Amino acid sequence: MPITKRRRPFVRSVAVSVAVALGATALAACGSEDDSETESGPVSLTYWTWTPGMDKVVDLWNKGQGKKDRITVTVKKQASGDTLVTKILTAHKAGKAPDLVQAEYQALPTLVSNDAVADIASEVGDAKGKFADGVWQQTTLGTDAVYAVPQDIGPMMFYYREDLFEKYGLSVPATWEEFAETARALKKKAPDTDLTTFSANDSGLFAGLAQQAGAKWWTTSGEKWKVGIDDAASQKVAGFWGDLVKEGAIDNQPMYTPAWNKALNTGKQIAWVSAVWAPGTLTTAAPDTKGKWAMAPLPQWSESQNVTGSWGGSSTAVTTDSGHKAAAAKFAAWLNTDDAALQALAKESGIYPAATNAQTSGAFATPPDYFSNQSDFYTKAAEIAKTTAPSAWGPNVNVAYTTFKDAFGKAAKDKSDFAAALKTMQDDTVADLEKQGFEVAE
Fold first, then answer.
1. Domain for residue 304, yes or no?
2. What is the pTM of this model?
3. What is the pLDDT of residue 437?
4. Among 50, 132, 284, 355, which residue's beta carbon has the most beta carbons within 10 A?
5. Which residues, if any, are the signal sequence (predicted)?
């Protein structure tokens, strides 16, 4: 939860605005004059991150480019999610935030609205070409500023049991309409089998699906935040899944439970709408089905479309408390664009890189072991990643996500109105913004 407020939204327009001007003033006030280029001595930076094995990746920097530039980075392992956001804001309030922080994309607006992360556009702007437009936009929030460098992403895809699709005479759905028809056809052929489940225990899945449909959950109108969780695109997604649950065409149980694992492992569920990181989950959840799955692009809302949503991912940001902004930004760019660094991240941390130059080489030149039957897995994944739709995050994603789990969890269990659950999400998010002191447009 944000600790300090400027009582202003982060403006999503590239036009000059009062909010952006205030942000620039705050950044100038919080940061020192900088940095490795003006100091005669070496620079020491601290990086808060939850990524496993990051210390080994940073060692490459410290022994290579960092040694040359006299910039040393020390990793401080942290918890992830809201816990880290709260810790960053608490440290920033005391003027003691680290130089660099790992931030999930949906957390950036909260950090920006609290002036906790710096605009590093002038230091890393040339890195833009390394990333898909929709990915880069997640760190600019639709402005001329750059608040972080993308690190890893979770482009969404469709996973299915290739052998069972053949057994039941099913085709891989290219559209959501075909997806629904496939679910119904499977039920007729095998009443005890489900195509998939609607799960309310991971808000990021629904957010990614809404993103693919064109939803803009947080935008601004002038100096006010505008919440669009209940917009037409999200209503379409909620209605689609709600109808399938109500008619019993798919299951309504949550993911990541022993029952869900068993359903995947035994073929009681034969597909999963997920992201590029799914092979790791399936390895544990359905070990007996290794080599029987295949990956395809996410179904589209119309045959002419080619777009996917994003489920997960994070970035590297420089804080406004850092006295070494340019040095920190230089490291952030290296970490997330350098070939050796990205391959080390893949090996040590198991991430799927946001930078396009690493998505089909090194660790990604061959398919995941679980998908050894699909030789073009990462080639196809890279093509899908390029189609990532722009996101629209706001300063209280945590509240929206919590409400989703409660409202959609009940709706899925009861097979009741998903539209009502979506409106509850909208109302709770607006109420929280107003409670925090943000101005909210109707």
1. yes
2. 0.89
3. 93
4. 355
5. 1-28
